[in-house]
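User: I'm writing a tutorial on reading structure tokens. Could you give me a worked example: one chain, its sequence, then its tokens, then a sentence or two explaining what the tokens reveal?
Assistant: Sure. Here is the example chain.
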Amino acid sequence: TYGYDAADNLTKRLDNTQQVFDVANEVAAAATNPPISLVGTASAGDATSGSLTLALPAGTAPGDQMLLAATLANGKSVTTPAGYTVIGTYNSGTSNTAAKVVLYRRTVAAGDSSVTVSFTGKIAKTVALAVYRGVHTTNPIDVVSSGATAAGTSVTAASLAATAVRDRLVMVTGASGTAGTWSMPADMTARVQRTG
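And here are its predicted structure tokens:
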């Protein structure tokens, strides 16, 4: 959406580019928004504790956007960390042994240095965190698509169309049971992988 100041000057364009006006209501500066960039990642996984703690990657700053994915068996549960928003819960099937991925987000605040994710008991689980800079502050998640398979070697998610300029596609995957690997789609780069 467009943004306007009190004098009805256009201050934000549809591509989220900001404009600043002086006291005479003339354009004083047009700030370009930097592209979205990865600050860093962190991950942990085990089957021997009831929680996992991740230190935020070096260079993380207030205003950065964190994506946090917890993978666990479908019949188990995870507690949403304080200050995080659930983006969605994605299951690979309906049985208790099927995989479940819970995806969260949070805008980094001053003083944030780590995140602890708590689970119901000592279960096999993994947590992966990616921190991005330059993400839209009021609408950090544009669109979401998901896919699942209870038993198979590939997963297909429905196509989606970005609604904002400079969106970035992020893929989160998870599995339960036999350890395996993921092959990323063409033109995507793996940022973090973890086995629990």
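What the tokens reveal: The chain is about 0% helix and 35% strand. The mean pLDDT is 83.
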